[in-house]
Each structure stands twice: as structure tokens, then as C-alpha cells.
Amino acid sequence: INKPKLEKEELIQVLQIDNQQVRQQQI
């Protein structure tokens, strides 16, 4: 049960990082 949750959290973190990079590129 913990594994899927961890994967989701990791995905969220990766998405956040991607969003930050995209924002920096846009600026």
C-alpha cells in the first residue's frame, strides 16, 4: 500500500520541478 503512495508523491514532486523549469523558461 505504501509503494503506490510513494510513487504518486514522487510523480507530484517531479511535476512540480517540471513546472518550475517551464516557468523559468517562460520568463
Q: Any overview of this molecule?
A:
The radius of gyration is 12 Å and the shape is rod-shaped. The longest helix is centred in the middle third of the chain and has 25 residues, at 2-26. Helices cover 93% and strands 0% of the residues. The protein has 27 residues and is mainly alpha-helical. The protein has one helix at residues 2-26.
Write the layout of secondary structure elements.
Layout: H1 2-26
Care to count the β-strands?
0
- Indicate the mean pLDDT: 86
**Series of H and E elements:** H
Low-confidence stretches: none
Structural class: mainly alpha
- Biggest sheet statistics: none
State the gist of this model.
By secondary structure, the protein is mainly alpha-helical. Helix content is 93%, strand content 0%. The longest helix has 25 residues, at 2-26.
Q: Any key phrases for this structure?
A:
27 residues
